Structure formats: structure tokens, C-alpha cells
Amino acid sequence: MNHTLQDLMRDAARLTQAGRLSEATAAIQRALGGGPRLAMPVATLAAAGEVLEGCVFESAPQRTAGKPAPAKADDGEFRAGSYTHSSLTRQYKLYVPPERAGQALPLVVMLHGCTQNPDDFAAGTDMNNRAREQGFCVLYPAQGQEANPSRCWNWFKHSHQTRERGEAALIAALTRAVMQEQGTDPQRVFIAGLSAGGAMAGLVAAAHPELFAAVGVHSGLAPGAARTLPEAMAAMKGGAAPGHAPVSLSIPLIVFHGDQDSTVHPLNGEQLIAAATVQGGTASRIEPGQSAQGRRHTRTLHMGTDGSVAAEHWLLHGAGHAWAGGQATGSYTDPKGPDATREMLRFFFEHPRQAGH
Predict the structure, then answer these.
(1) Is the N-terminal amide bond of 338 cis, ω within 30° of 0?
(2) Phi/psi-derived region of residue 352, left when phi > 0, alpha when psi is between -120 and 50, beta in every other case
(3) In this structure, are 37 and 82 located in the same domain?
(4) Entry's Pfam families (predicted)?
(5) Is residue 65 part of a domain?
(6) Domain tally for the chain?
(7) Does pTM surpass 0.85?
(8) pLDDT tens-digit series, residues 302-356
(9) Residue 319 and which of 67, 183, 264, 292 are 20 to 30 A apart at CA?
């Protein structure tokens, strides 16, 4: 008997209410077609009022997030805030390095993945330490559990994909507010994310190419890959359907994706690169490599019409759904490398926005 996704999720809700959690979990796995495991208990999802709607599931984290140590004065400032745009309100955290002396610093916007939060993401990517060393600000918008039970950015809902409204609009507006508050360099504003955060980073960059100089996506999906939850689940398992051509990305892009990622299929990384290079040149250069910890990778450089690098695709061999080179203090990290944080920053600072653009 062929059950629809909705029928299977209804069965899961009924089993959860009856206290039969293992059977409920099995029902959800059938709904996902043997796909990714739940990143949070079924009972928690049921308590949130929804078993599936509004959720995109992740594999269980490879690391347990530790509580971040309080920042010392010489480490810079890592403060919390709240921002409202139209009808949406989101919390955020902002890192400002010490001894900035009125400089117009770069700004990197970091969008966490499902079940994560700014502290967890900062710890796993080690981005604040890099910001202190290299001198830039880091903005971490936070997805609320009331907006998505798994704290996923709602990249797969059409109402959050437009320039004028939804989460994509809020993130862009928050970025502008922080730029004004901190006096950051408007030519060096970048955005990056992991998984659902990576998918949302691509959407925000596609919708606001005048704001961001470059974008980094780790284990994410191309903008326009899905506009409904069933489409999102299908794209995660095998890439966007032919009828959902990715929205073009007109700014430089760097992509990291594990070729053994069972949560977001690696074909999505290829589709991201296609979205970025459709308006550029066709020449490319392939560079195999290996991290100090033994992780092999294939780095493909795609050139623009002027001969400069417009996009980089890092295919990580044997890697799953995790931030490459990340720290064990954060979730979804793979210490075997390569160092995605270092390479993203290198790519970003090689691609400032040209004056007048």
C-alpha cells in the first residue's frame, strides 16, 4: 500500500500521542524514504504542535555542542540583540573584535543549520577567533523555535524567498542595520551558512546582490531548489527537479560539500555552482588536494569572463554532513578538514565589491 507523506506523518503523530515513540520514529523514517535521522526527539516535535510542517530534518550532530566560555575583554565583544523587520522578529549575536580604532571593518554574516544556534555555530566554525585575529565583525542571526521547531531557516517556503518579505528580507535588513551601527566597510560584506543556513545564504545573496560581495555555502542547496516542503525533501535527497531551475547568483560563490552527505545530496553543490557560473565564463581548473588530517578533496575553480575566479567548488571525499575543519565544541563538525572557515575567508577577502557596484 502506497502511503502519502501526509498519511505517514499523521500516523507518526498518532503513535507519538500514544507514547509509542520508537514506532513513531520508524513512521517518519518511512516518510523520508529511509533518509536522514531526526535531529530532535519525536516527542519534542509533537509538543511543538507539528510533526513535519515547518521542519527540514538533519542527521544527528557528529559533535556535542559545549557551552561557550564567556568572552574576555581582550577577545572582543560578543553580544546579543533582537531585530524586527515587518512582522518578523529574530534574535542575533554580533562579534566585534578588540582595538578596532574606528576602522571600517569587513562584516561576515553567518547562518546556522538546523538545531543549531549562534553560540554553537560560532564555536564549531571558530569564526570569532578568526575575526579577532584578522579584524572583522561577525553577525549571527538566530532562527527561533517558534518559527521552525528544528530552528531551520525556512529556505523551502516561497514566502521567505523574496527580496521584499520573509526571512530573506529580514536577514538583509538586519545586515544593513549592523553595517550602519558598526560603520563596516560596504565593499566587504559577505554571507555564509551551513545546510539550511547555507540554502538561506544563497537565497539572500541572490535577492540582494547589491549588498553582499560574495557568498559561501557549506552542505546547502541552490536558491530556487524548492518552494514547498515536499519539494525540499526531494531536493535534499537528489537535487532540485528539472522544473526548478536555480535562481542565478551574480556574485562570487564558494561551495563545500561532502560526497558522502546523506542529508543533502552532493548534487546540490553542483547545482549551486551552475547557478553562479551560468552568467560567467566556462573555463575551469581542477586541483586535487589533501588536508593535513588526511581528508582528500577536489577543488574546482570556475573562471569568469575576465579570467578571474568566479566560483570555487570543494568536493570533500568521504565526508558527510558537517563543517569541514570545524571544532569539536560545536555540532556538525568534521575535524579532518580541509579548513572551510579559513578557505571561505580567503575567498571572501579576495573578492571585495568593486567601487560603484
Answers:
(1) yes
(2) beta
(3) no
(4) Esterase_PHB
(5) no
(6) 2
(7) no
(8) 988 888 899 999 999 999 999 999 999 999 999 999 999 999 999 999 999 976 5
(9) 67
